[in-house]
């Protein structure tokens, strides 16, 4: 499948498009490399930049709006001493007639070394990766509902940081799995890294058909789904899902699937709570949980920079 | 022009004939099979040794892209591609720009096609104006202009009352409706089968009930109205089972499948190949097996190419943004032969799904090899291997899921109305008598 496109002939990472089909050794390599960047990315703010990507041109190409992901990629690239160009290509300039591949070809001609791409359609990164020159690396920063590999990796980094390993973990992913590229990346990463029990918890209208095929256990009730888990991975519920035929109201959703202190008591006492952001407080998560002792949500953001530095430096070295 | 087709393996699926015979053609018709008529002096002798001589193929869905969509393909290019593929009669769906909803457009298309080499063209008229699913077209007028059936192509018909009235009105003139069963609401925004691949990729799904709910509605209204309905492009096991039961109940319906759906499944979309973005979507491997079973047991009446040439710009896009469809008219025969080999179906039976059976659905005199029948013939080498590549396809549409793969079986001659319309270069030259 798509794994070949992501790897060089000798099995090293060439593009990061999806976590599906990537071997555990590569995921672990990224997490280990990220660990070495945590001091650079977080605690020691006045440390010098690492010169690993000096002279490299990295293009952040965002066909979909994003502040957080784009900013963390930008910071990560700058800490690696790369030159960063941000391009927000909204729907209007696409409608002027330039195709996705034309855009990429034009940017390639500007001596790009790496593209970080977010796009509303699944597989956009794959398409670009098939058409770029051999020396250019592509990182998927979110494609449709398909994949958000660096988010999945930073979630794994966070889990490993707090829990030490994956082989003894019980993890629940709660919320709109159907529309979530984050959930898909988390599921692929957890199953690859040997997590023995991955659960999804959601109403049937927010789960893909036959989601069990992805290697997860399905729960519809929070009380059952998060019982005795080591980590609760909350998903964002987008505004447009709160009305219409998938859910009757935000209120009913919160009542059944919102993470409140009471519900969290069902998880293990030392369970951690994660969320990819931005949060809808009072919809999928109670503020008391989001800001509580078990929340590691802000650590995720910090670790996100280290993980993205790791991905970029590994790609540039391959 | 009198042509003597010498020493070919003549297969007439309708009669079951499969034997080495000579075929004699004069004045646009077959005048003899086996023995020449008295005083037959051929102008041309074609050595058909080692070739299969079968009726010219009848394709129930070929998009010629005219009028209006000439940036994708032209009438001339696609008519030629049909002949290269052995197709001698075709039905073209009304999803042109503008749609075939006015007699003038149909007359123009018929006129242009008639003055061009290539197959006989039978337009399918739009069922509703602009294919909007609201107001009926002038079906009787369109029929006089040359439309042999009426369809929404792939445009939705959401209003069940319009569907009921369309059936009643068409029944008034005994005109057939060709309907691709899909509930527009259940299929809304969908691009892929609601299965394991769409779940993995997060692609907006088209669930099987989008097909079965529509079939159910259509079958109930057929029982009510007695309308003549042909169900186009079935894709699901459950849908085929419904048709099987309806036929057992004696309902006079027919159905077809697209040739790609006989071979491919959702698994072929797993690497986002936009050439596998088809309508209806490629479904599960179980659904594909049900299509094969439905062909083998005769539930499915015909295989068509559902030829949809799409230009590169509209395909070199992420899967869900790419225009749907695959070029197919040149793959119709080899892919049907591939199915026959894999399923152990005799050649004569397999060719029936491409010849007399679709001809019966079209309601035209085609698809037979017998004295007195039109001399529309396809001569192919069942052993010839070739690679599908842009340069090997005559169609302007190079959008094939099979690019780079090998096909077995290749058309060498296509005769239409008693003339050699296509002869493959490099094939041994015919002797002139």
Which labels suit this protein?
heterodimer; A: 318 residues; alpha/beta; 5-stranded parallel β-sheet; 4-stranded parallel β-sheet; 9 strands; globular; B: 433 residues; 8-stranded parallel β-sheet; 18 strands
Unreliable runs of chain B, pLDDT <50, ≥5 residues? Answer: 428-433
Beta-strand share of residues of chain A? 5-15%
Query: Quick one: overall form of chain A?
Result: globular
Low-confidence stretches of chain A: none
Order of helices and strands of chain A: HHEHEHHEHEHEHEEHEHHEHH
- Computed CA radius of gyration of chain B, to the nearest angstrom: 21 Å
Helix-strand makeup class of chain A: alpha/beta
* Euclidean distance between termini CA atoms of chain B: 12 Å
Structure description:
The complex is a heterodimer of chains A (318) and B (433). Chain A has 318 residues and is α/β, with parallel strands linked by helices. Chain A contains 13 helices and 9 strands. In chain A, the strands form 2 sheets. In chain A, strands 7-6-5-8-9 form a 5-stranded parallel β-sheet. In chain A, helix 2 crosses helix 7, helix 2 crosses helix 13 and helix 7 packs across helix 8. The two termini of chain A are 21 Å apart. In chain B, the strands form 3 sheets. In chain B, strands 1, 2, 3, 4, 5, 16, 17 and 18 form an 8-stranded mixed β-sheet that branches. In chain B, helix 2 runs parallel beside helix 3. Chain B starts with a strand and ends in a 10-residue tail after the last strand. Chains A and B meet through helix 6 of A and helix 5 of B.
Question: How are the SSEs ordered, and which strands pair?
Answer:
The complex is a heterodimer of chains A (318) and B (433).
Chain A: H1 3-6, H2 24-43, E1 57-62, H3 68-79, E2 83-88, H4 91-95, H5 100-108, E3 114-119, H6 124-131, E4 137-143, H7 149-163, E5 170-174, H8 181-192, E6 197-201, E7 217-219, H9 222-225, E8 231-234, H10 250-257, H11 261-264, E9 272-274, H12 287-290, H13 297-317
Parallel strand pairs in A: 1-2, 1-3, 3-4, 5-6, 5-8, 6-7, 8-9
Helix pairs in contact in A: 2-7, 2-13, 3-13, 7-8, 7-13
Chain B: E1 2-12, E2 17-26, E3 29-33, E4 44-47, E5 52-55, E6 57-59, H1 75-84, E7 87-92, H2 103-114, E8 120-126, H3 139-145, E9 149-151, H4 160-172, E10 177-179, E11 192-193, H5 196-201, E12 205-206, H6 209-225, E13 229-231, H7 237-248, E14 254-258, H8 259-263, H9 285-296, E15 302-304, H10 312-315, H11 332-343, H12 347-352, H13 356-362, E16 377-387, E17 406-416, E18 419-423
Parallel strand pairs in B: 1-4, 1-5, 6-7, 7-8, 8-9, 9-10, 10-13, 11-12, 13-14, 14-15
Antiparallel strand pairs in B: 1-2, 2-3, 5-16, 16-17, 17-18
Helix pairs in contact in B: 2-3, 4-6, 6-7, 7-9
